[in-house]
Amino acid sequence: MIRILLADDEHLIRGAMAALLSLEDDLQVVAQAATGAEALATARVVHPDVAVIDLQMPDLDGVSVAQALATDLPTCRTMIVTSHGRPGHLKRALAAGVRGFLPKTVSADVLATVVRTVHTGGRYVDPALAAEAISAGDSPLTPREADVLELALEGAPIDEIARRASLSPGTVRNYLSSAVGKTGASNRHEAARFARAKGWI
Amino acid sequence: MIRILLADDEHLIRGAMAALLSLEDDLQVVAQAATGAEALATARVVHPDVAVIDLQMPDLDGVSVAQALATDLPTCRTMIVTSHGRPGHLKRALAAGVRGFLPKTVSADVLATVVRTVHTGGRYVDPALAAEAISAGDSPLTPREADVLELALEGAPIDEIARRASLSPGTVRNYLSSAVGKTGASNRHEAARFARAKGWI
DNA sequence: TCGCGTCCATGACATCTGTCATGGGGAACT
DNA sequence: AGTTCCCCATGACAGATGTCATGGACGCGA
């Protein structure tokens, strides 16, 4: 019997997934959590075999939870399900030791299968997401460029970005200019959106 | 027995919700659809009593489907469930004749209850979403301002917005300036994000 | 040690944007 | 008929932004 921890902020989805997983004879949902912190706390108590975690949650995101679980509970395998899978997430997730990565568009059968695969030490990444991640390629941005571009994402003016990054406005403009060139965008906002779509920031 | 049509692009969620609803004795999921178009086509064939539709789907969004259903199948009550409820959606949905509006954070119990409420001609709107919609208030933007701001959302430069809106660049700047003033933002990108958060565009 | 790339910064310049004043046309309401 | 608001447009100006050249500091690998 595989003991599962389920974390998703959407009560309806979480309950429904629990119901589906429980239909399988060899699977048992032993705990549920609505936030990342709750998932972590619960996991420390119940020691699940597999943690199925939603990528976007109110507090910590799925990858952070996975990272914490990897060090806290090395025996617990982690997999992530998500609605909006961007290439960068997958990369970060795998780096965090996640063993399975699925969009919510898969069927319940697949979910159950992947839970079993992950439990026996295997890995599974949704082919479509994997293809996307590969086609997105590696980020051409330097770390600083990525930092600055991330701050530019919300539409803040350069002065504010400079303050938040503790840089001079001129330097910020240089990085942004460089990033705009690399992304082929026509201004920093477009560049920021592009980079986020590619999962670079 | 209430006959339900379920539309959601996420297979996992759809299947899980179907499983949950089917646990109720008086509810029966008679059809499922993964896209808006599919939902419409299916509804015309099976004539469900209640349509439970996800707000965001690849092609038509939930509100458009609801609108089409209202004219096509007047006897079919429509309700919408959503992950990310922005105030504007709720307003548009109610205008389209939707009888129920729920976030996916509710429990399965609530979902089933609302299905029954809607079926008997009642209405139900999630209290939290309703409060948000009220606090967001009506849009202070004129129709043109909203149009232009929407085009500005993707970070396009003014010239492109002008082309796409068939306006002169000067006019576009005036509308954007006005919108920036009304939203209290410091530039059009921030204004666009703000307006979208409020559901105004 | 040298070269290389990254990080940080400055200054100068052209262009883009935000703001304001102004005005004509049209629809709605008094 | 007059008032008011929205739509569309133009022009002018200040300030923000994008681009480019330049240079020093630092760490890393050859």
TrEMBL record, chains A, B:
UniProt keyword annotation of DNA-binding present: yes
Record InterPro entries: CheY-like_superfamily, Sig_transdc_resp-reg_C-effctor, Sig_transdc_resp-reg_receiver, Tscrpt_reg_LuxR_C, WalR-like
Record Gene3D superfamilies: 3.40.50.2300
UniProt KW Cytoplasm keyword: no
PROSITE patterns hit by this protein: HTH_LUXR_2, RESPONSE_REGULATORY
Domain named Response regulatory: residues: 3-119
Limits of the HTH luxR-type domain: 134-199
Gene Ontology terms describing biological process: phosphorelay signal transduction system; regulation of DNA-templated transcription
Xref: SUPFAM superfamilies: C-terminal effector domain of the bipartite response regulators, CheY-like
Protein name, as recorded: Two component transcriptional regulator, LuxR family
UniProt keyword annotations, A-Z: DNA-binding, Phosphoprotein
CDD domains from the UniProt entry: LuxR_C_like
Modified residues (4-aspartylphosphate): 54
Lineage start: Bacteria, Bacillati, Actinomycetota, Actinomycetes, Pseudonocardiales
Domain of life according to the entry: Bacteria
Name of a matching Pfam family: GerE
MF terms (GO), sorted A to Z: DNA binding
